[in-house]
Amino acid sequence: MPRKTLKERQINKTSPEQDINPSDTDDTKNRVRSVLDNLTGKESSDELMDELRRVLTESKGPPVAGKFYIFVYNAKTLGVRYDQNPLVAVTDIFQWGFRGINYHWGKSRQYTWSEVAGPLYEVYASEIKDLQALPFSNFRINS
After folding, report:
1. Are 138 and 74 in contact (CB under 8 A)?
2. What is the pLDDT of residues 27-82, one digit of tens each?
3. How far is 10 from 4, CA to CA, in rounded Å?
4. Closest listed residue to residue 105, CA positions, set 123, 79, 77, 80
5. How much is the average pLDDT of 127-136?
6. Could you tell me the residue ranges of all domains in the chain?
7. Buried (b) or exposed (e) across 82-92, using 16+ Cβ within 10 A?
8. C-beta separation of 73 from 111 below 8 A
């Protein structure tokens, strides 16, 4: 396959696709970086989650396997310990909900549709490192 010309490469740099998939080094496309940069250390996990929801856009439709999301979750099972503000890499979609790797737990968890409180917010792979640096997990015991 022939190499692209300089003109073709410059056209690709301004394509709308680049806005959809920002790079790790593109600070202007990392929506989470401003929250991390303004961190004082006095914010609660819920305040940080609110800030993240302000800089991110609500996802349209159900989650997609292979993508990353944050959302608010309220477990229904009494006595169970859960993360109210999960950061999840979705692995499977089901009629009852979805399964994914929760970065705060470091393992796979299940999420039912009726316990997802509000919209999901898709985050880019390039924003994961910044999200992991923000202490927005909120571990609770359902009572």
Report:
1. no
2. 558 999 999 999 999 999 999 999 999 999 999 999 999 999 999 999 999 999 99
3. 10
4. 80
5. 97
6. 29-141
7. bbbbbbbbbee
8. yes
